[in-house]
Amino acid sequence: MKKHKTTYRFLISGGGTGGHIFPALSIADAIRRRLPEAEILFAGAENRMEMQRVPQAGYRIIGLPIAGLQRKWTVKNLLLPFKIVKSIGKALDIIRDFRPHAVIGTGSYASAPVVWAAQFKGIPTFVQEQNSYPGITNRFLGRKARKIFTAYEEAGRYFPENKTVLTGNPVRKEIRELGLTQKDYALFGLQPNLPVVLILGGSLGAASINKNVAAWVKSQKGNPGFQVLWQTGKLYFDRYKDLENPFVKTLPFIKEMNKAYALADIIVSRAGAGTISELGIAGKPVILIPSRNVSEDHQTKNASALAEQEAAVLLPENRANKLFDIVNDLLKNKEKMRRLASNIKKTARPEAVERIVDEIFKTLNITP
């Protein structure tokens, strides 16, 4: 009698920011490459960016009413317990209907109800932690997860040693395959004969970075000797879009980030763990401006670690008005630019997502 091949089903959850969504999509893509017949479903937080990004990547997603705890007191915090209970109930319904063989969480409050519900039902769960200091969600969920995948060795101390695997952060396939053509400059309205400074503040935007870039743009008269590709973030685009000129291009979000990385001569960025993993693969001179509004100040820790290896320039947020002084100094010092690019490339772990899927398949006894 012919044995029918199992169609494996994977439920993936995580979101709120690109730092959680892109690793989740990277894992999904790697699973699909190895198991084309696999069914993959995402669960995320309603009204957050995953509800757009995941369908754009070709996957189905179901939204939960879950929300995060606000740092400042607000009436929204009073509604949080009700949203958690409702989200857990909906997560249990999703698991009952989809019947996943495994559930994978990539962090943030968006993943908590889904991974917890799976653990409650005895379904194998896996957790991927991007930062050197894990968030409270992953520390809690890691207790019952089959495996925890970490990007930094330091994160291992917060999880059971026998279940923790140091893999690095998953990076999107298109980032791992950077290429550059003359058409890419035209895509962004840039000139191929001038250096490009790529400025990123995350998908939503960074107020302090944007403020200082705007001040610099307003102070310029004529050709600065380079051009700026400025991702303002969705929250700030309307405020700054009128500052665009022949040497400054503004966008709310850069979808073709692989092309932006490829044409950049210098990259200015926050220091989130997922972004740093991408920057290592891009291998360009980087100026990191860590956000101070994150738990345990992990962005400063990330940036400091790279700065100590001369793999990046660390610029504290309270000195961000010096950004373009540093840009000009770097453009005049080609040797330092080469050194920064070479050193950050040494930190790259392009095989991270394949290692993660290897471990998941091995744990589930899946042979593609």
Going by CATH, what is the homologous superfamily of the largest domain? Glycogen Phosphorylase B
Largest sheet: 7 strands, parallel
* Amount of helix: 40-55%
The arrangement of helices and strands along the chain is EHEHEHEHEHEEHHEHEHEHEHEHEHHH
Count of DSSP-assigned helices: 15
Secondary structural class: alpha/beta
Please state the overall shape, judged from the principal axes of the Cα atoms: globular
Number of strands: 13
Please give the CATH architecture of the largest domain. Answer: 3-Layer(aba) Sandwich
Distance between the termini: 21 Å
Mean pLDDT: 90
- Which CATH C-level class of the largest domain is it? Alpha Beta
Give the C-alpha Rg.
21 Å
According to CATH, what is the topology of the largest domain?
Rossmann fold
Low-confidence stretches: none
Q: What is the count of distinct domains? A: 2
Strand order of the largest sheet: 3-2-1-4-5-6-7
Beta fraction: 5-15%
Q: What report would you give on this structure?
A:
The protein has 368 residues and is α/β, with parallel strands linked by helices. It has 2 domains: 9-171 and 350-364, Glycogen Phosphorylase B (Rossmann fold), CATH 3.40.50; 175-345, Glycogen Phosphorylase B (Rossmann fold, 3-Layer(aba) Sandwich), CATH 3.40.50.2000. It is built from 15 helices and 13 strands. The strands form 2 sheets. The chain has a 7-stranded parallel sheet, with helices on both faces. Strands 10-9-8-11-12-13 form a 6-stranded parallel sheet, sandwiched between helices. α9 (237-240) links the parallel β9 and β10. The mean pLDDT is 90.
